[in-house]
Amino acid sequence: MRRFDLRSLRFAPDDHAWRRLPVEADPFVLGGQEYAVEGRVVGVSLDATRVGGKIALQIEFDAVLHGPCQRCLEDARLDLHVLGADYVIGGESQGADDGEAPYVLGGVLEVDRWVRDLLGSALPPQIVCREECRGLCPVCGVNLNQAGDDHSHEPGAVSTG
Predict the structure, then answer these.
(1) Distance of alpha carbon 65 from alpha carbon 123, whole angstroms
(2) What is the pTM for the complete model shown?
(3) Strands (E), 2-159
(4) How far apart are CA 80 and CA 73, in angstroms?
(5) How far is residue 81's CA from residue 63's CA, in Å, rounded to a whole number?
(6) Can you say how many angstroms the Cα of residue 108 is from the centroid of all Cα atoms in its chain?
(7) Over the stretch 69-115, which tens digit does the pLDDT of each residue have?
(8) In 3D, which of 111, 145, 152 has the Cα closest to residue 128?
C-alpha cells in the first residue's frame, strides 16, 4: 500500500478509528550504499482521532533495516521502532515543514512517503554492524574484526587505495 484514503474511515465528528496497513518501504541510498527494509513491507498501525473538522493522525511501526556497515562493509541490521504524528484540517496536513509537500492532500494520506521519512529520521548517525566494529585497515583494506589484534604493517607502508 502506498496511499490511504482517510475518507474511508467512517467515524463521527468526535470519534476514533484504527487501521493496520501493510506499507511498501522503498530502499534508501546513503553514501552510495543501499539500505532496505526486511521484507520491503512494514505493518503500520494508523490511529485517527477526529475532533470536529480536525483529524489527529498517529502511526507506529517496527522495521528491520539491512545494509552495509559504514565501518567494515559487512551486513548491518537495525531494529527500529518508529512513531509519527500529523494533523489534518480540511483534508490537508498541517505538520509538514516549510517547503515540504504535505502527507495528506485531498483527504488522501501518502503513507509510504510518511513511513520513508520517519524511517530516515530514525536512523542513527552511523550505521554499524555492532558498536565495537573495528572497521577496515586503512593500509590494506582487510576487515579488522576478522584480522585480529596482531594485524600490522611495516613502518612506512602506504595505502594502495
Answers:
(1) 9
(2) 0.83
(3) 4-5, 16-24, 28-30, 33-37, 41-51, 54-68, 75-89, 92-93, 104-105, 108-109
(4) 20
(5) 7
(6) 21
(7) 999 999 999 999 999 999 998 888 886 665 677 899 998 999 999 99
(8) 145
